[in-house]
Amino acid sequence: MINILLADDHAIIRAGLKIFIKNLMPHSNIDEAWDGDSAFDKIKQNDYTLIILDVNMPATDSFGLVSNILAIKPESRILMFSMNAEEIYAKKYLHLGALGYLSKDASESEIKDAIDTVMNNKRYISPSLTKTLTESAIGKKANTQNPFNLLSPRELEIANHLMKGESVSQIGAYLNLHTSTVGTHKARIFEKLQCKNIIEIIELARVHNVIQSA
Predict the structure, then answer these.
(1) Which among 120, 60, 111, 37 is positioned nearest to 81, based on CA atoms?
(2) Which of 32, 64, 93, 123 stands the most exposed, by the fewest C-beta atoms within 10 Å?
(3) Selecting from 1.10.10.10, 1.10.760.10, 3.30.420.10, 3.40.190.10, what CATH number does the domain 146-207 have?
(4) Closest alpha carbon to 17 in 96, 114, 85
(5) Domain boundaries, the chain
(6) Top CATH class, 3-134
(7) In angstroms, rounded to a whole number, what is the distance separating the alpha carbons of residues 159 and 165?
(8) How many percent of the chain have pLDDT more than 70?
(9) How many Å separate Cα 28 from the centre of its chain?
(10) More confident residue, 198 or 140
(11) Cα–chain-centroid distance for residue 26?
(12) Global pTM value
């Protein structure tokens, strides 16, 4: 039996993916989770052939979740599923140990390719990201460097919470961090992005297509 976990806070997305996967693998057993806590609880209790994680689940530190999953089950095959800017987020999740990053607006054939690749314990990189990485490697984008690449995974996570209008105390509660730690990260984010306030960060994020979507 192929065991798969779908973790997404939108029931309609889970339902659509479940139908799609069942058509690909009729004998698969598919569990569902709706946030980081429910996903991690199921992963602790079960062994999954494939874990598909939404990046933007509520009250969830997605970077921390990936790290925690791989800490207790290093062989986990994780495919991230999101509308977030692939150029920024994919590289960070792949660096953490996820095997793939898939856009929610991907075609059916691309979704199938991504699932097949990760199921075979291989890294999936989309054609668009492959092109981006290639161009970057040969220097074609040297003059259009995205400043958000300078942020660590934790800083990027906090930056996204800040852009949603959340306070330092709220972010600390979500990510289980002391408010002073969040404040330190916030200061570094402003420094690295060379912004004076949240409005400037939001405008910069729009320019570089980094704003998180649901």
Answers:
(1) 111
(2) 123
(3) 1.10.10.10
(4) 114
(5) 3-134, 146-207
(6) alpha beta
(7) 10
(8) 91
(9) 24
(10) 198
(11) 27
(12) 0.73
